[in-house]
Amino acid sequence: MSEPILELVGLSKTYPGGLKALDNVDLTIRKGEIFALLGPNGAGKTTLIGAVCGIVRPSDGTMRAFGHDMATDWRAARARIGLVPQELSTDMFEPVSRAVAYSRGLFGLAPDPARIEEILRSLSLWDKRDTRIMALSGGMKRRVLIAKALAHEPDLLFLDEPTAGVDVELRKDMWRQIGAMRERGVTVILTTHYIEEAEEMADRVGIINGGKLLMVDDKAAMMKRLGRTEAHISLAQPLTELPASIAHFPVELEEAGTSLCYRGGDGTGKGKGEVADLTKALIAAEVDYTGIEVRESTLEDIFVSLLGEGEGAA
Amino acid sequence: MINWRSTWSIYTRELMRAMRTAFQSIIAPVLTTSLYFIVFGAAIGARMPDIAGVDYAAFIIPGLLMLTLLGETTSNASFGIYMPRFTGTIYELLSAPVGVAETLVGFVGAAATKSLILAAIILLTARLFVEYQIAHPFLAVIYIMLVAASFALFGFILGIWADNFEKLGIIPMLFLTPLTFLGGTFYSIDMLPKPWDTIALANPIVYLVSGLRWTFYGTADVDFGLSLGITLGFLAVCTVIIAYIFKTGWRLRA
Fold first, then answer.
1. Count of domains in chain A?
2. Among the four residues A71, A292, B96, B135, which has the most C-beta atoms within 10 Å?
3. Measured between beta carbons, which residues in chain A are less than 8 angstroms from residue B2?
4. How far is A215 from chain B (nearest CA, A)?
């Protein structure tokens, strides 16, 4: 397992007025991973990022980044962290290259035109280097924010809703950019409410709601633990009870005995195999069927289910 | 320890912002001040008697300089920090490894520098209308720098305090400008009838205008030491307030 580069312990934030945006959050981020923080609007994702990046003052808890206590040794820690905010917040009157160079200088690094050129080229911004940011499209502006965040060569990069409000093509392009960052050794923490984004890119996933971190796990392990296969078998003749030969399968009769529903497996494909065995058992028991619909559960199903449980418990 | 590269980045960026808005930052105040010189210096001043042995047109130069200096420095500094708060770009400053020293030297230094450039241009412009000599040029420069730094700090506080554009403009418009007009810009406090000459001494701007006038002509309404002390005191108070703001994150960090 890679070394931890960010450790949050008991992190809480209560805003004036009483809103508890973070509630005793414990989280460890490992070097080189892409971590997706999933949650609905107002779940606490941006507050968590803000707390680590120095924009929000935590009410309680400790934060350590790269071994530095962020309360006392914040300069050393922040020097290695980059942030791409959700909003397109930058001086729109500045040319692209100057805005990126400013970000590098702000983090205390010497000017390095070659490095700036490399970053701009990697984000397809080199041709726009002298263009004022206000003249760029929304997608290009978002790339400028990424370039600014990469200007000081951070080891840990926060992307707050990097693809919010962008079209599908640009979203996929952004995913490629994030993949390239990981190739360069940058650890990426991204917040999103697009589940497919987490499914596509993340190594680990955290689900947050109401300021509480409900679950953190490897994406594959989460799918294995919480994933399910669901199969609906339309029967040619209604059944009143299950044949004994299929009783050991996790099945039940639905729709007045005209449909047999299987819910089982573990999100790794095991369920598909059981459905195949089930169909063979049905044939052996001379139960005829007219159609089969098999569906693997997605991260979205798990997400919705977890949020539902959280609300139910609340 | 202060990070000078970060400080330089903030400082140069703020100066570049001023260059981008050169008309608003430099040309407009120079034009306004020139109009004052034409009206009060050349037109009306020609019919006015000397004040404390100084030609009236020359007498008003320190006051007019202070009028522009206070207004422009406060506005520049307050806009400098308010705009990033308003547009959200302050995230970059807050998430960078920069503290109060880099932020202050960068923002306040740039605002003060702009004001010094402006002061130099105004003094050169005044030359076109009025003959004048500066009795204590070194002290005049130091004093202008002190006032510029103090009001840049004051503007910085204003830019953090304000949560809308109205608040941003209200202090310069409703307090600074009237107090400067009533602070002896166009007259000596001695010329006021009683008890207004005494009441006028409650106006802190009187000491600033008077201090600058002393560096120009060696004559003033109040002792230069008192003017200097009040300026330094104001500088200290503003510095303490800003240190408190950064320590608590008031209106900067959520």
1. 2
2. B96
3. none
4. 26
